[in-house]
């Protein structure tokens, strides 16, 4: 019997290559949504105890490369569903963990200040780096988190 971790490592290239066959229509729709600033997160995600705040983050999560060879006009990144821990930077207190939707987007209302976004990674892939961001009063800061698939 093959251990679960070994099986995952053996199947990872197959899963990644399956993403190369994604339609250009879905990539075009994602690019159009980004270009127009459209978002698909429901307003209910913005509600809650911080509903009165007029500041926060709009996060876009991307995964790639998804193709071993990139052709002209082909995108080898795709939106990614991921969990991201939000840490208040001065006191390093975890405020919450948010999860991006299937289109790789999530929005969260936050008070103005410095935060560390800590993307949760898999063992060993995909991997991503923590990112420091500043939220300003009466503004939503846009941030893109990149996950590395390991394909080279």
What descriptive keywords fit this protein?
Immunoglobulin-like; 152 residues; four-stranded mixed sheet; elongated; four-stranded antiparallel sheet; 2 helices; single chain; alpha+beta
- Mean pLDDT metric: 76
Describe the biggest sheet?
4 strands, mixed
Looking at this structure, what is the CATH superfamily? Answer: Immunoglobulins
CATH topology: Immunoglobulin-like
| Ends distance | 29 Å
CATH architecture grouping: Sandwich
Radius of gyration using CA atoms only: 17 Å
Compressed to H and E, one letter per element, the order equals HHEEEEEEEE
Point out poorly predicted stretches: 4-49
Overall shape: it is elongated
Estimate what percentage of residues fall within beta strands: 25-35%
Whole-number total of structural domains: 1
CATH class: Mainly Beta
The percent of residues in helical segments reads 10-25%
Number of helices: 2
The counted number of beta strands is: 8
């Amino acid at each position: 019997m093959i251990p679960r971790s070994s099986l995952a490592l053996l199947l990872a290239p197959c899963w990644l290559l399956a993403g190369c066959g994604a339609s250009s229509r879905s990539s075009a729709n994602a690019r159009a949504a980004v270009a127009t600033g459209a978002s698909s997160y429901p307003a209910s995600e913005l509600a809650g105890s911080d509903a009165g705040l007029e500041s926060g983050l709009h996060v876009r999560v991307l995964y790639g490369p998804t193709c071993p060879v990139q052709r002209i006009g082909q995108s080898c990144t795709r939106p990614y569903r991921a969990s991201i821990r939000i840490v208040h930077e001065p006191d390093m207190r975890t405020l919450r963990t948010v999860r991006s939707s299937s289109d790789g987007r999530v929005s969260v209302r936050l008070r103005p200040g410095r935060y560390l976004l800590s993307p949760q990674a898999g063992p060993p892939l995909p991997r991503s780096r923590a990112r420091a961001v500043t939220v300003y009063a009466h503004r939503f800061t846009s941030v893109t988190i990149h996950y590395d698939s390991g394909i080279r």
